[in-house]
Design goal:
The protein has one domain: Orthogonal Bundle (Triger factor/SurA peptide-binding fold), CATH 1.10.4030.10. The chain is 58% helix and 7% strand. It is built from seven helices and three strands, in the order ββαααααααβ.
Length: 183
């Protein structure tokens, strides 16, 4: 059975089952929803999103001739909220994603006016005169801009390359039966 495709590469349901089983055997198993519930089905859908994003990362990195470097890195809550759940999860566990992120965001810059404005508005975080805070501010703003650009880029590539089978739609897709985001 197939859960979806990244380009022409199939994502077997077995890959989703393996990821779910690994989570259910892990230290947070007691916190996971029962598989027969709406939340349990949406967990499978979310894991499908992560596996599909990993497939996109692998395909794009291969096309660019990139190789993985480094080890998995924990993701902070702030970074996950800025970057988005799937992008943050993939960046945390997939060194190839970090290599691709570096390539995709290599040209991200922060102009002086933006850094100065940030300093003016955030004196509680940067109390020193601007010249002393400048490099740290620019590094922070560049990191945040890179996170946003990578997340946007990954969303666009996933939209272009990923096709999901019925039952494996994004958890927030209103067409799927367990959709819960109502106004």
């Amino acid at each position: 059975m197939i859960a979806g495709w990244v380009g022409e590469r199939a994502i077997p349901v077995a890959a989703i089952d393996e990821r779910v089983a690994a989570l259910r055997a892990g230290p947070y198993a007691a916190r996971l929803p029962h598989p027969a519930t709406m939340e349990g089905r949406n967990l499978r859908r979310w894991l499908t999103q992560a596996i599909a994003a990993e497939g996109v990362i692998e395909q794009e990195a291969r096309q660019r001739g990139l190789v993985a470097t480094g080890e998995p890195q924990p993701v902070t809550l702030a970074a996950a909220l800025r970057t988005g759940g799937v992008a943050a999860a993939v960046l945390a566990v997939h060194p190839l994603a970090r290599a691709l992120r570096a390539a995709v965001t290599a040209d991200v810059t922060v102009d002086e006016a933006t850094a100065e404005d940030y300093h003016r508005r955030n004196r509680d975080r940067h109390p020193q005169p601007y010249p002393r805070e400048r490099d740290a501010i620019i590094a922070t703003l560049r990191e945040q801009a890179s996170e946003r650009r990578f997340a946007h880029w990954l969303d666009e590539r996933c939209a272009a390359l990923v096709r999901l089978a019925p039952g494996y739609e994004h958890p927030a897709d209103p067409a799927q039966p367990d959709y819960t985001h109502h106004h």
